[in-house]
Amino acid sequence: MPYVLGMDIGSTGTGAAVARWRGGTWARPEVVALDARSNVVPSVLHLSPDGSLAVGEPPVDDPGRTTRDFVRRIGDDVPVLLGGEPCPPQTLIAELATWVVELVSAREGGLADAVVLSHPASWGPHRRELLHQALWDLDLRNVTLLPRTVTVAESHAARGFAGTTAAVYALGGNTFEAALVRRHPRGTFETFGLPQGLAPFGGVDFDEALADHVRTVLGREFVGAAHQETYRTLRGLLPECERVKRELSVATAADVMLALPTGPVRIPVTRAQFEDLIRPAVQATVDLLARTVHSAGLAPAELDSVLLAGGSARIPLVTELLAAALPVPVETEPDPQLTAATGAALAACQVVAPRPRRPEPAASMPVSDAGRAEGPAVPARRHPEHDPAGNGEPPPRPPVRITPLNLPKPSRLALARGRGREG
User: Fold this and answer.
1) Which residue ranges does the record annotate as region Disordered (predicted)?
2) CATH topology for 3-159+338-354+397-416?
């Protein structure tokens, strides 16, 4: 069955979704389970003793052979060291993307007709070219790169967002993005204004704030414990705090559970306590989003909505502070960690079969309440990702079937080491 694939490779987690061709149309995207315990797999690569790269957290952490948070390193002059060898960050991203493509292809029984990979909205042509070349080197040649803000807007539009202009608030594990998007007459979206971001910053900082609170509460127990026992406890503290953070998104109280040398302990935490710990940091992200809106020459009331994405965007305090700062609806999805991946799959449907053009607003025509001009259609301006030349002409419709990829073998470390174009 024909299908398309959308991917979102974040700094801490990677998600994917597929949309299948059924009954003469593209069905609603379905999330791909990339991990046995979760739909999202950690964006972690581990160098195995045989030289192959494994995806996800290794059974035993080996800092010298494990790499994390390499997504935001793309474009750096200093490569990532893995097993003592330099690896360009873009090649590591391409490796992870290839792993997803291989996994989905094996389950679907064939290759996707189109693949869309989301990337930070702040990336310029240099970083996109680096990633394109790395994907090409691994024979991934039917991949379209789109800003994460665009894929987020696509996902929200499929769930009912009918506005024209929106602010995107994307709060991930180790990054935060604030950007603006607007809808074209054809229905696609583009980023405009100057995207803003904070990195490294994200949900991991909230986990650490809660962990500091726990350490303070258990100060005496930690001081009295043996060094090795204390290390084992502290190693499990952050994952436990991450679990409690997610639980407090739906509950008003939760317990941090730890096994100390003196026995198991339970530290109750209320949502109010947790929100007091992270309020200044969340407020900083809201302020940055407001500045992003003003820098584009817009008043907050001119927005149609604020669209949320990222795993940490599910925290109720985020919606509360955004609603107080911006007088427009704040929209989130059931699992905002997968919003960008789902939107990437929706965008991939358009790569294969673009939407028909709809009328574009004109100053001389009356505008309806929905914000669309009542009059004949005018030529649509294509998104710059789809029209690199900027000549305003839509590209020819690609064939439904793309030439099959020659997927590389599981072990590709030789390619990763020392390769990468910096031009």
Assistant:
1) 355-423
2) Nucleotidyltransferase; domain 5 (3.30.420)
